[in-house]
Write a structure and sequence with these properties.
Largest sheet: 6 strands, antiparallel
CATH superfamily of the largest domain: ATP-grasp fold, B domain
GO molecular function, one term: metal ion binding
Keywords: ATP-binding, Nucleotide-binding
InterPro entries: ATP-grasp, PylC_N
Domain ATP-grasp: 221-284
Distance between the termini: 27 Å
Strand order of the largest sheet: 14-13-10-11-12-15
Pfam families: ATPgrasp_Ter, PylC-like_N
Structural class: alpha/beta
CATH topology of the largest domain: D-amino Acid Aminotransferase, Chain A, domain 1
Radius of gyration: 19 Å
Number of helices: 10
Number of domains: 3
CATH architecture of the largest domain: 2-Layer Sandwich
Amino acid sequence: MKKALILAGGTATAWHIADVIRRCYGEELDLLVCDINPSYLVHTSILADKFIRVPSIREPEYYQTMLKILESEQIDVLFPLIDDDILLFPADNPDLKRLGVVSAAPPRKTVIALSNKANLQETLSRIGVRTPKVISSLPEIRPDREYFIKDKVGCGSKGAHTVLGKDISSLSGTQILQELCGTPEITVDAVNDGVRIHTVCRERIEIKLGVSTKCRVFFDEEIQEIVEKIAASVKLPAVFCIQFMTDPDGRWSLTDFNLRSGGGSAISAAVGFEAVRAAVGILTGLKTDVSECLRRPDTARYVVRTYREVVTQ
């Protein structure tokens, strides 16, 4: 039996991956989960065959600890979910290659090009994909205009906010300042099956803690073409999600790129676009009908998220 290991087990993204593995691959895949918190504070621990508490990624021993776990537990597939883990464990990491571990992350070159918001803007500009204009100097700022500020490396929309030009006195090296885009704001759930790209869109009607809770799910041909254009130039992972908004001229503008499934990807799965289920099959080699997993809605569907209580101990 193969083994899968999910990192950052306390995230909403981890819960969806763990749930999919348990429901769809439970007879073929052992599930291990890691987190910095004890098991009774991690919801996915109740779905795991084994839970392992690990040190913070900020601790110097973290990387070697993870390598020891991967080797001792004989892990086949690794799911890094936060940007720092994705950077540490890209698909072409030589230590993972030595251990025979398949990472759900893309190669390091892709991580560098698309995870950092500044690098993302430069990469997409070369490809010819629109992104919000980046403000790089104080003289460009108009006091009466609103701007959007976010961390160059971040998770979801946490920490992102609007700010008036008159309130900006300096530009931080850890953040990026952009022109303000308009609604709708959509997330694109996407799968790369090695032959083609599959997408579905979810309009983020309501967001809590950076994750969609009310969405309109639909397919958009123009968005599909944009993602295919990126895939033709950059090696993308099996599953990922992208944020779009509209620029001042009403055109789609790519605002963020996540090299993993999203905390809200379960919303798309609820109407038949099961990106994580397809990706698990692709990454593990377990028999999976990818086309059956990735059914797009014929008409727009509305999905709302509710929370459940999990007794962990």
